[in-house]
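Notebook p. 47: complex prediction with FE2/S2 (inorganic) cluster.
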Amino acid sequence: MKRHEFFSTLGISAGMIFMAPVVSSCSKDSASDPDTGGNTNNNNNGSIDFTLDLSTPTYAALNSNGGSVVKSGIIIARTSSGNFVALASACTHAGTTVGFESSANRFHCSNHSSNFGLDGSVLNGPATSALKKYNTQLTGTNLRIFA
Ligand code: FES
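Predicted complex, structure tokens below:
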């Protein structure tokens, strides 16, 4: 049996044999982060682990109580007492990015007015699910956000 006859009995054309490596190379994940500043690592298990250098202008808002930034789908805020809080930034109601309200120490969604506490819990709807909370760790001017 010739090669093309063998593949033909399997229902495979020569073109399919050569396409397999091309298709698999298109599915590679990219670990690069298009944002400027910070070093993002989204691990294979989907966990979050990145560090922000608070000495850079990009993250200067976090040097003051009440400041906040959004990076990689996470809102990082510095509360009125100076603690860092990191929560998923997409509102659990319909996905709008929430903002930090320093005067009330809460996260607010301007789309339909849901509010979330510092632990991500729903203070009032229409959202019914909490925002995922991430850990924070400050070392010098480096703020690590991780799952
Ligand atoms: S999208 Fe946030 S309350 Fe509706």
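Notes: The pocket of FE2/S2 (inorganic) cluster is lined by residues 91, 93-94, 96, 109, 111-112, 114, 126-127 (CB under 6 Å). Residues 1-29 form one domain.
Next step: compare against the earlier run before touching the bench.
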